[in-house]
Design a protein that fits this description.
This protein is of the alpha/beta class. It is 40% helix and 13% strand. It folds into 2 domains: 120 residues, Aspartate Aminotransferase, domain 1 (Alpha-Beta Complex); 254 residues, Type I PLP-dependent aspartate aminotransferase-like (Major domain) (Aspartate Aminotransferase, domain 2, 3-Layer(aba) Sandwich). The protein contains 12 helices and 13 strands. Helix 7 links the parallel strand 6 and strand 7. Bound molecules: pyridoxal-5'-phosphate (PLP). The site of pyridoxal-5'-phosphate has 12 residues, from helix 3.
Length: 382
């Protein structure tokens, strides 16, 4: 089987991730931060270690500003619903996932003004377009670091500089890039970063969250949920302390243990090496697919401007048929359709049919890509 759906979730997970999860359940099964016994303390230590490793990975000093949540979507909802009030203006890009667009459209019903900056046909975003959009002022700019449809990487540091000059916060959706591209929140001037654990970070589903920059004033961000935190239990109001203000209810300790092991696996291999591998595969895939008559490739031509997420269509063939045949005839698993990002497909011209999306990962090999190219050639010819 050739698994080319890493943009949806990475698979297989490193064996270290499975071992860490089993270890958590067997040896550290207590409720972290609640009870004082050794199983609870051990669970708390594992959760803290992962928090600390993520803080370092994303370039912040205070691990308590890494807020665990269900996934990137949950992290984005904490940020968007917390920061935006009726009358506020938010500027976003034309390549957003519904994890951003749906909360924004909901907030729009309550008087938030949403401005979408058009993307280029290859899915890239031009900082100049943000300059224009920000002339009207804004409370928040939110963009993804890389598109899950076209792979296009956004110029985050440049957009963040423009956002700050206009007095807006910068929120980045790093669902596609955490564990794939270097992210230093300080150097890139990111105020809030939503990440997911189950893609590039190689962790299990049910992990992810929101990271607050050291300079971000958490008083500006009311929590989405209230409830038990294991701390300040004498009060019936939500504690102010980080991360408890936002981490309500029992955390996904077993998932966080797996995420810690996934992150350690990524750091051991090194982002540079992982990126070089993906760039090689993406270049091979692009060059092989572009030789197929009629095939339309989306995304930036220059692989350096893109993650290894490659979308294509074949005129005269439904994307669902191509996905089905890749699976049935060649044992190749990919994703077809709109990938939860209709706005992105409108921007690149593939709405409403969507695209076939091929997303290799760290264990994908050159022969896997060659087989994929041959399989697409056969499907195109018959
Ligand atoms: C760009 C982008 N944003 C957000 C998400 C949502 O991630 P999750 O489902 O882990 O919340 C995804 C997942 O596909 C994504 O690709």
């Amino acid at each position: 089987m050739i698994y080319l759906d890493h943009a949806a979730t990475s698979w297989p997970k490193p064996p270290e991730v499975l071992a860490a999860m089993q270890n958590f359940l067997e040896r550290a099964g207590g409720n972290p931060g609640r009870s004082g016994h050794r199983l609870s303390i051990e669970a708390g230590r594992i959760v803290y270690d992962t928090r600390e490793a993520l803080a370092e990975f994303f370039g912040i000093n205070d691990p308590m500003r890494v807020l665990f949540a269900l996934n990137a979507t949950h992290g984005l909802n904490i940020a968007l619903h917390g920061l935006l009030r009726p009358g506020d203006r938010v500027v976003t890009g034309g390549m957003e996932h519904n994890a951003v667009m749906r909360p924004l459209r909901e907030l729009e019903k309550h008087g938030v003004q949403v401005e979408v900056v058009a993307a280029q046909p290859d899915g890239t975003l031009s900082p100049d377009a943000f300059t224009t959009a920000l002339q009207g002022g804004a409370h928040l700019v939110v963009v993804n670091h890389a598109s899950n449809v076209a792979g296009a990487i956004a110029p985050i540091a440049e957009i963040a500089a423009l956002a700050h000059a206009a007095g807006a916060w910068m929120l980045v959706d790093a669902a596609q890039t955490a564990g794939v591209l270097p992210i230093n929140m300080g150097a890139m001037s990111i105020d809030l970063l939503a990440f997911t654990g189950h893609k590039g970070l190689q962790g299990p589903p049910g992990t992810g969250g929101l990271v607050l920059a050291d300079s971000f004033d958490a008083a500006q961000l009311p929590p989405l949920l209230q409830g038990g935190t294991g701390s300040r239990s004498e009060f019936e109001i939500q504690p102010e302390d980080l991360p408890d203000r936002y981490e309500t209810g029992t955390p996904n300790g077993v998932g966080i243990a797996g995420l810690g092991a996934g992150l350690a696996w990524v750091c051991e291999r090194g982002l540079d090496e992982l990126r070089a591998h993906e760039l090689d595969l993406a270049a091979q895939l692009r060059s092989g697919l572009s030789g197929i008559p009629g095939l339309h490739l989306y995304g930036p031509q220059d692989p350096k401007r893109s993650t290894a997420v490659i979308s294509f269509t074949l005129p005269g063939k439904r994307v669902s048929e191509i996905g089905y045949r890749l699976d049935e005839e060649a044992d190749i698993l990919c994703r077809v359709g709109l990938h939860c990002a209709p706005a992105a497909h409108r921007s690149i011209g593939s709405f409403p049919e969507g695209t076939v999306r091929l997303a290799p990962g760290p264990l994908t090999t050159t022969p896997d890509i060659e087989k994929t190219i041959q399989a697409v050639k056969r499907i195109a010819a018959t």
